[in-house]
Amino acid sequence: MIPVFTGAGHRVIAPDLFGFGRSDKPVDESVYNFEFHRNSLIKLIEHLDLKNVVLVCQDWGGFLGLTLPMDMQDRFKKLIVMNTGIATGEPLTEAAKQWIGFCTTVPEIPVGGLFACDAGAAVNPMDVVAYDAPFPDNSYKAGVRKFPKMIPTDTNDDAVRYGLRAIEYWSNTWEGDSFMAIGMKDVVLGEPAMMALRSVIKGCPEPMKIAEAGHFVQEYGIEVAEQALAHFGLNR
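Given the sequence above, the corresponding C-alpha cells read:
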C-alpha cells in the first residue's frame, strides 16, 4: 500500500502498535489494554499534528482506529477500512470463540505460521520470515498473547464503551468519503462482519470484494490502494 500512496504524492504514517513491528514490546501483559493503545494513537496524532487524515485500518487497527475520529473530528477526512469492526458487546461468533480459545491454550502463538495458513494469503517464504522477525523468542510476544484476550465479551468492556460512541459518530456525524475492501475468505472478520460495519458508516459505498484474500487482506494492498485512490480522486 505505502508505495502506491507515496507514489501518488501522499505522506504515509504507519505506526506499529506497542507489542508489534518495530515498536517497544512490554513483557507484562497487564500493560496491554484498549485505552493504553487508543491513547498512544491519540498522542501520536497530536504530537505529529496530523490533519486531513485518510484513516487506513484493518483488524485491531480498526477496532482502535475507528474510535479516534469522534474525538478528533477536524483531523479526519477519509476512511479506508478492511476486515475489522467496532466493539458492540454483542455475543462473539463461534469462529471468534475458537480463535480466542486457540490463543489462550497454545504455548506460543506462531505469528508467521498464522500468516502462512491464512486461506487467501499469497504466501511468500520471505513474508513469513518478515512476520516472525519482530519476535526473536516467546518473551517478545506479550502483546501477541494479550490482544486476543482483549476482544470484548461483555458490555462493561472499555472497547464497547468507545465502540458504541463510535457507531453513533459514524452513523450520524461522519461526513467524509469512505472506501471498504473485504478479504472474502476471512472466517472471523469477513463479509458478514464487514457488511454489518458498512451499515453503520454513513455513505459507505459498495465494498471492493477480494475473493482470494483472507484475513490478511493488506497483502493485496496495491490493488486496494489503487482503487481507493481512484475512488477518492487522489491518484495522479
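Residues 2-232 form a domain with the Rossmann fold fold (CATH 3.40.50.1820). Try to locate this feature in the C-alpha cell string yourself.
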